[in-house]
Write a structure and sequence with these properties.
Length: about 190
């Protein structure tokens, strides 16, 4: 595959905005897309499996990979919790002849699009409001009052970066947001 056809699709949003639901929709519909599996220092939750949902690695290993320049982007998303995209993961997907789709943190997304300005499409999924986002996060039943407050505060901050993305899509209706995201990606990939 020629290097100029090695495109990247980035979907970023505050936690609870629906980016994972939209990403799943796209992956089910388009086999030419492949999820880039992020590396994370946190422990698996529920049914999560290493190498499927994340590459779960220790903080020490993560920091070693930073020193080795093994990431295209990485962030300490929450205190002591590192997330990043391994260069090897993008290469793996490109070598399959597919386009990687990244479901990543807002700051990591901006950093990545700066590295691949002509080969990436960045999409920001916007919640209808911070209050609605808080309701969505509460309905998951996975947050402590402290973690919920942290996520809501972080979401408010991340919303301030929405104009750094190529496209903003409001997710006040999941079906419509999926359709709009699909259309933007089809245009980008020339489908």
């Amino acid at each position: 595959m020629a290097s100029d056809s090695r495109k990247i699709i980035i979907i970023a949003a505050p936690s609870g905005s629906g980016k994972t639901s939209i990403t799943r929709f796209l992956l089910q519909k388009y086999p030419a897309l492949s999820l880039s599996i992020s590396a994370a220092t946190r422990k698996p939750r529920g049914e999560e499996k290493d190498g499927v949902h994340y590459h779960f690695i220790s903080e020490e290993d993560f920091k070693h990979k930073i020193e080795e320049n093994a990431f295209v982007e990485w962030e300490m998303v929450y205190e002591g919790s590192y997330y990043g995209t391994l260069k090897a993961e993008l290469e793996r997907i490109w070598n399959l002849g597919k386009t990687p789709i990244l479901d990543i943190d807002v700051k990591g997304a901006i950093h990545l699009q700066d590295q691949f300005p002509n080969r990436c499409l960045s999409i920001f999924i916007e919640p209808p409001s911070v209050a609605e986002l808080k309701k969505r996060l509460e309905s998951r039943g996975t947050e402590t009052p402290e973690s919920l407050a942290n996520r809501v505060n972080k979401a408010s901050y991340e919303l301030s970066f929405k104009n750094h993305f190529h496209k903003n899509i409001l997710n006040d209706d999941l079906e419509r947001a999926c359709s709009e995201t699909e259309q933007v990606i089809k245009e980008f990939l020339g489908w």
